[in-house]
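Narrative of accomplishments. A recurring question from our advisory board has been how the design workflow behaves on a single, concrete structure rather than in aggregate. To address it, we present the structure tokens for one chain from the evaluation set, followed by the sequence designed for it. No filtering or post-editing was applied between the two.
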């Protein structure tokens, strides 16, 4: 006999582990799929979306769910590992129904859906039965404030608005706040254009910049172009300069120049400099803001710099030693101190005494193949890039290199369900 309770709330299930009958973990619950029955009654719950190892999302029918509570979900173990493909009238509870505005049947106004309860019927089917709503609720991207009383109502006590009406994204963001930018970007690829823009509008600029960098270039262009110019410029400022330059290079020249004019001058300067390079050169791949210190700096100071949260592991792997000025293009490039050397040295020791002067930098005009050969030959996570006068102008990291060498569509979902750019899957 099934141990599934008669009622569960979706928000309380999100992120729960899903196991097979032997106790082996299959993945984590990310959403619930319902099928609208129009005027015939509440939506029918047809399955759950589970994120399996490899960050792929697959569909598990409710007929294969044998146990569900607030600590775990157990299924039969018979799971099709093909990537989930939303079809027909199916709707995602978290992705589409949460934050949907409804009109209350008693005529007292409208409300916003914050959670959904689903009940199992005697027939074994699951139906959406209750809505947890906030009356007159509203959200603010800047303050994150919500107003209005909450209440639990029957599905029949509310009339959902049209799918074309504006919709918030507070609950969606709350349920996905643990995702890394690349995984969040993966989830966004399954959304409609409208829903994706609504989610983007409620993301903080820094978070949106991180997510944008993980999307395919064509999708980056479409989403950035959907934002107003001021917001788009703010997001570009939060992006890594090399990623911002790559994105601007894909825009019409007039639009790119308008955004550069709206950016802070210092941020725009780095991006403009990168735009001068051909994309197949070291200068076109590099970031202009690696960790740069003078030879008089100590090991303790260097370790403090590489502990910064906003620094990628590749950039944190090396300190570039230069004469002032320390902003690119720097004074004369002296060499590199690798993080292993920092960990083996005494905190008061000066970097000039442990600098590796044998690692030859590459020219900013060097080809990508030369960069790849050098990094592979010396097992490097990052490689210094200098101009014709020997000044450091940036560094190429291994992730920058891989991004360039991989096929253009490497960020697109794999398998037998190709993606339509920013419009969901091709059926």
């Amino acid at each position: 006999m099934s141990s599934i309770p008669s009622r569960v709330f979706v928000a309380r299930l999100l992120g729960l582990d899903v196991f097979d009958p032997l106790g082996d973990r299959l993945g984590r619950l990310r959403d619930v799929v319902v099928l609208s029955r129009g005027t015939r009654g509440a939506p029918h719950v047809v399955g759950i979306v589970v994120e399996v190892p490899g960050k792929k999302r697959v569909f598990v029918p409710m007929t294969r769910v044998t146990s569900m509570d607030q600590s775990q979900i157990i299924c039969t173990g018979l799971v099709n590992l093909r990537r989930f493909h939303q079809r027909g009238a199916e709707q995602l509870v978290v992705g589409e129904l949460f934050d949907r505005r409804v009109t209350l049947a008693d005529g007292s106004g409208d409300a916003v859906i914050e959670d959904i309860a689903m009940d199992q019927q005697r027939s074994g089917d699951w139906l959406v039965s209750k809505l947890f709503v906030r009356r007159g609720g509203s959200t603010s991207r800047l303050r994150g404030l919500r107003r209005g009383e909450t209440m639990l109502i029957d599905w029949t006590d509310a009339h959902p608005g049209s799918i074309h009406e504006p919709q918030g994204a507070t609950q969606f963001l709350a349920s996905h706040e643990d995702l890394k930018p690349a995984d969040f970007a993966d989830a966004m690829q399954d959304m409609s254009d409208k829903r994706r823009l609504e989610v983007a509008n409620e993301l903080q600029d820094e978070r949106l910049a991180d997510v944008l960098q993980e999307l395919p270039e064509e999708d980056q262009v479409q989403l950035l172009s959907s934002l107003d110019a001021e917001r788009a410029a703010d997001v570009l400022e939060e992006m890594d300069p090399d990623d911002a330059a790559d994105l601007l290079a894909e825009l019409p020249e007039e639009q790119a120049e308008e955004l550069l004019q709206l950016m802070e001058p210092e941020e725009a300067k780095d991006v403009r400099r990168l735009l001068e390079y051909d994309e197949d050169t070291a200068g076109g791949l590099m970031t202009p803001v690696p960790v740069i210190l003078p030879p008089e700096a100590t090991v303790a100071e260097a370790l403090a710099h590489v502990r910064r949260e906003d620094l990628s592991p590749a950039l944190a792997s090396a300190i570039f030693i230069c004469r002032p000025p320390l902003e690119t293009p720097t004074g004369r490039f002296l060499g590199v101190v690798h993080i292993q050397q920092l960990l083996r040295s005494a905190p008061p020791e000066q970097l000039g005494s442990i600098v590796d002067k044998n690692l030859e930098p590459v020219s900013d005009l060097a080809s990508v193949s030369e960069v790849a050969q050098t990094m592979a030959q010396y097992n490097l996570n990052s490689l210094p890039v200098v101009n014709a006068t020997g000044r450091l102008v940036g560094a190429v990291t291994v992730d920058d290199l891989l991004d360039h060498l991989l096929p253009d569509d490497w960020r697109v979902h794999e398998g037998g369900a190709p993606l339509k750019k920013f419009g969901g899957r091709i059926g």
